[in-house]
What does this fold into?
Amino acid sequence: MSMGVTTRRLALGALAVLSLGGAARAADAPAALKIRVLSSRPEMVSGGDALVEVRGAAKGVTLTLNGKDVSGELRLDPASHSLRGLVGGLNDGMNTLSAHAGVAKATLIVTDYPLAGPIVSGPHISPYECRTEESGLGKPLDKDCSAAERTDYFYRSTDGKFKPLASPADRPADLATTTTIDGASVPYVVRVESGTVNRSIYRIAMLADPKGWNHRLAVSFGGGAGAKYNQGVNDAQAALSDLYLSRGFAHAVDTELVNNLHGNAVLQGETLMMLKEHFIKVHGVPRWTVGNGGSGGAIQQLTITQMYPGLLDGLQPSLSFPDSTLHTADCGVLQKFWKSDAGKGWSQEKKTAVEGFTPGTCRAWEASFVPVSNSANKPGCDLKDQSLVWDKQTNPKGARCALADMRVNIYGRDPKTGYARKTEDNVGLQYGLKGLNAGKISVDEFLDLNEKIGGYDDDGAFSDARSHGDPVALRAAYASGLLNGGGGGLATVPILHYRTYNDPLGDIHSRERDMSIRARLVKANGDGDNEVFWVGPGAQPGGPRNDPAVARSFALMSGQALDAMTVWLDRLAADPAPLSHAKVVRDKPAEAKDAYFSADGAKHAEKATWNGPGGYNATYPNHSEPRIEAGAPIANDILKCSLKPVKATDYKVRFTPAQMARLKVIFPTGVCDFSKPGVGQVPLKGAYQRY
It folds into this structure.
């Protein structure tokens, strides 16, 4: 089914850029003549070529690259009235582009990097196993797991299925047609382009008929949270989304953009940057780019947009979490305590008073994601060659399998061990504090729990002592944006979250996360008016986990979310004002408001709140989390708390002198003071940081 190497096609009539995260600047040039790179930032070009634009003259322009005339690459783009062209032959490192038109001239420095990266994320993780063969792309071409580009074709049948197509000219009897949002009616034949960037495998799907592309790009992000030492696996069909393709969108996926692979938003954002650059060089600049994806896919959209403004112009996160620095480790130590002799007598009501979640949720977190904090999690490394995996005794220099090890370029290495620094910390945390003050657990139960809770050692294994976050790693988590503080690019993008209500199932995708995300946006930007939350019915306890009715409801929300986002982003693209938070809010359509969907499919517009009155919380009430039950703010954005002395007056219950003395022994350095910023809690350092 392969149609050979994909030919690069420049859609020179493509619509103008909505935002690319920073326009190129012309140096020493009259205002009348300017050069800029459309496919990426000029200091972050990859692959040896760039889509270049020259403005200020439509003819008589000479363009040179490192002194060589490349004027022949330029063509007049009727939409922008500028000259555009794909300029190849860039050298690794710095290059000079110069444009001359009469006495006017402009110069731009362009820095090129290998297509295999890295550009900003720092040294590649090692070891690293290729998966090009498992992904149908043949043997890797080099040590960086590169693969030859290829094109495959599929069609949508009248029975609603995607099927392989031998040739784009074929017209099967069951071939469907589709009408795009721009009104073009075309055969529903899809071209899927495959290749590699930044050691990852991408797939880009578009309607094969050129009239079918609506000049908008959608990128899907996958879930999970992993620490794997390989390239990841996908296939051409991974890009086949009827939701997007039927409307005329280009739709892209990439193995790196699955959070279960490496769980590192710095690397994921770099990959998105390079993938979008490749797309623009082949197809031209999209009017706008929208993200979508649930769970770990929601995490990526939020954190990447904070770190790399402009790569995504709109976000559609579902089953959202704010970031991958979630306090899942708390569920691990709590489950360990419940299983101990001291915790066996605790009722479910008392456990819930500590965990905050619905019953079973913390247990699900322990089973699913506590292992990704353990460097000895050999299955998590997903290496065919298990001899490469770290073992404290037999292979101390091997691959360590925790999320921190995927982020070692950001967190840094402990000079004593050489291993990645860690952020996990529960020093001073008073588990069950709210339950104690509400009379749901006794003072002695509170003391027993906090005395015996323990933590994790530097390798991620359980420890009798509490966890101590590394000060360097803590600061880096905030400064880098790995902890989502609601700032960076998040202030100037439309965000429309949607989720099914899974709290009663003990599912990890609980609704209170939405409120933490909004609290962070409000804290950073003054309001959360560029963000929308929708919640619809989920599966019921005792019912089927894959309820067809729930799937239909979710599909309905997905379609409505995309349609609302399309209106929103089209308005922004047509609005000549500079991009700002106020502009995003001003152009927000009426259908993009907080709402909940009832079981009959009806949509009820109502502001989402933590515990306010109304139908939203009556239908889909929020629950809580261990840290919030320990006194953390709803934003839940503190990795390591500042401390204050233990004082009896801080509690709503009475401690005996012996109990107070015991409490001070349990917390010799003090307890969490959540009225103060966390240890190392600094603002985002900036966009497009280098490591």
